[in-house]
Design goal:
The radius of gyration is 20 Å and the shape is globular. Among the domains are: 109 residues, Nucleotidyltransferase, domain 5 (2-Layer Sandwich), CATH 3.30.420.40; 63 residues, no CATH class. The chain contains 8 helices and 11 strands. α5 crosses α7, α5 crosses α8 and α7 crosses α8. Helices cover 35% and strands 23% of the residues. The termini are far apart. It has 252 residues and is an alpha+beta fold.
Length: 252
């Protein structure tokens, strides 16, 4: 009897695969960098390998898997399983992801927007339990949202309900992966916070100030290695520059 399911999470920074039993208990998982600049063919081949590696870690055969669920940044069509040019996945233009996975593994595949999948998981297993409605916001490589009402994902037109990441806040702001400028995602996503931190540190070095020292130390002394997690860590330590960056992010 087939009683296991495979889960895949596709992001602009990392790929993750898991296998779980019928109760939702995770038996094994694998995580690797997306390397999005290498394009969709590389990512898909890597995902195929990761799924097989995940099954191997759990000592399971592919024949024991009944279905596969995929969480991926949009825009995408949940009915056809086609992914349409996510800003953080260059080259993923009208990619028939569902068809490719079903062809490779010969099992049913469901494709879901990552924010919607996270919202439903939170509703069923996390802080949303016991409530009729839930709004979930994700802030990672991209920014998005998912809405659950009476146990069902509210999709809106074109599966785009809750997708606030590309609202323009600053028309002359930094460029966004979607092609516009000044989007919320271009200002407040993880990579955006890192870029703002790197620019601020460079400016302070030029002006011979030192409040970027904590951030630089956390990144091993290399400006280009400063990440958003370093900003959060430095802010908790009271670093002035990190606190300024957090306050700016909260303002947006």
């Amino acid at each position: 009897m087939k009683k296991h399911v495979v889960g895949i999470d596709i992001g602009g920074t990392k790929l993750a695969t898991v296998v779980a039993d019928s109760t939702g208990h995770i038996l094994s998982k694998v995580r690797k960098p997306t390397l999005a600049e290498r394009g969709p063919e590389y990512a898909c081949q890597l995902l195929f390998q990761m799924v097989r590696e995940t099954l191997g870690l759990a000592s399971l055969e592919q024949s024991s898997v009944s279905a596969m669920g995929v969480s991926c940044g949009g825009p995408l069509d949940t009915k056809t399983g086609v992914v349409y040019s996510p800003p953080n996945l260059p080259g993923w233009d009208a990619l028939p992801l569902k068809a490719q996975l079903e062809s490779e593994f010969q099992i049913p595949v469901t494709i879901e927007n990552d924010a919607n999948a996270s919202a439903l998981a939170e509703y069923r297993f996390g802080g949303g339990r016991g409530y009729n409605a839930l709004l979930y916001m994700t802030m990672s490589t991209g920014i998005g949202g998912g809405i659950v009402i009476d146990g069902h994902i509210y999709r809106g037109a074109n599966d785009s309900a809750g997708e606030v990441g590309h609202q323009i806040l600053l028309p002359d702001g930094p460029p966004c992966g979607c092609g516009k400028r000044g989007c919320l995602e271009a200002l407040c996503s993880g990579p955006a916070i890192a870029r703002r931190a790197q620019a601020a540190i460079q400016a302070q070095i030029t002006e011979a100030k030192t409040s970027g020292t904590t951030l630089l130390n956390l990144a091993g002394g290399h400006i280009e290695d400063v990440k958003s997690e370093h900003v959060l860590t430095a802010a908790r330590k009271g670093d002035a520059l990190a606190l300024q960056l957090i306050n700016e992010t909260a303002y947006y």
